[in-house]
Design brief:
elongated; binds guanosine-5'-diphosphate; 282 residues; binds magnesium ion; alpha/beta; seven-stranded mixed sheet; Conserved Hypothetical Protein Ylqf, Chain: A, domain 2
Length: 282
């Protein structure tokens, strides 16, 4: 695998996160709900362990509702709440309510003393392509204001005031996931790593293989092809190519065209709501 890895950069990011953690009440981790394992960096569990965390299963418009439920059970506990989300359709109310529910004991401590907690403050963390920018931009909309100068806070900290109950710290919290073989593949399938890990044709063949192992009907239904046990991913790709007329001169299959079709349709959700990872396997 050919993936750039920057330990120096990583170290600086970790230090930055640790410094800014002191400014927030809890963390919001954005993940890609199609790959709930691969779109997380296990390092977050170390450095964020003293903070409660709201795990936003973003892109839930693209993931399998049944597996979503199983993942929710796996990731939910006293200190971690889960919210299924589609950042393209922002829902301020859902995020604020989940956040306050997660932090209800902390809020109650203030209320017992007759005090008002004021806004909950959260830091956003997540791996690239999980949808952090989309989340922040869409949830803040025109309601929010970006401010730099809060008392006791250096000028570089940008607070995004979602409403009087929730403020977000514009995140330094971007980390690449651990690139185990399967994690790299999953990130490439979902478009998080573009054409870096292997060529598109090979990637598409791997995706075809994976989709078939999840459910044979995914490709059968979409491309109206026949798929039997003994067929190789290459033969399946050829059948898709014939159905789609992805042919070159002389009637040869245009593999790169078929590859683009399959990858593109998976990424856009045209092949259905598909989650590539099952919590039972972890
Ligand atoms: N379908 C869908 N696409 C999303 C969602 N959130 C983000 N995206 C897309 O995912 C891609 C990466 O999003 P971006 O916000 O740049 O991710 P970041 O690298 O974490 O900041 C973009 O093409 C977004 O339009 C979502 O909830 N659903
Ligand atoms: Mg971004």
């Amino acid at each position: 695998m050919n993936i750039n890895w920057y330990p120096g950069h990583m170290k600086k990011t970790l230090e930055d996160i640790e410094k800014k953690l002191k400014l927030v009440d809890f963390c919001i981790e954005i993940i890609d709900s199609r790959i709930p394992y691969s779109s997380r960096n296990p390092v977050f569990d170390d450095i964020l362990k003293n903070k409660k965390r709201l795990i936003i299963f973003n892109k839930s418009d693209l993931s399998d509702p049944n597996l979503n439920k199983k993942w929710r059970e796996k990731y939910t506990d006293e200190d971690h709440a889960v919210l299924f989300y589609n950042a393209l359709r922002p829902n301020v109310k859902a995020v604020v309510e989940k956040s306050r529910d997660l932090m209800k004991e902390e809020i109650a401590k203030f209320e017992e003393k007759g005090l008002n907690k004021g806004p909950l403050r959260a830091m956003i963390v997540g791996v690239p392509n999980s949808g952090k920018s989309t989340f922040i931009n869409s949830i803040s909309g025109t309601r929010s204001t970006k401010t730099g100068n809060r008392p006791g806070v250096t000028k570089t900290n940008q607070w995004i005031r979602i409403n009087p109950k929730l403020h977000l710290l514009d995140t330094p919290g971007v980390l690449w996931p651990k690139l185990e073989e399967n994690v790299g593949l999953n990130l490439a399938f979902t478009g998080a790593i573009k054409d870096e890990i292997m060529d598109t044709d090979t990637l598409a063949l791997k995706l075809i293989e994976r989709l078939n192992s999840i459910d044979k009907d995914i490709l059968i239904d979409r491309y109206k092809i026949e798929v039997d046990e003994k067929m190789s991913p290459l033969e399946i790709m050829e059948n898709i190519g014939k159905k789609r007329g992805a042919l070159m001169k002389g009637g040869f299959i245009d593999y790169s065209k078929v590859s683009k079709i399959v990858l593109d349709e998976f990424r856009k959700g045209t092949l259905g709501k598909i989650t590539l990872e099952d919590p039972d396997d972890f």
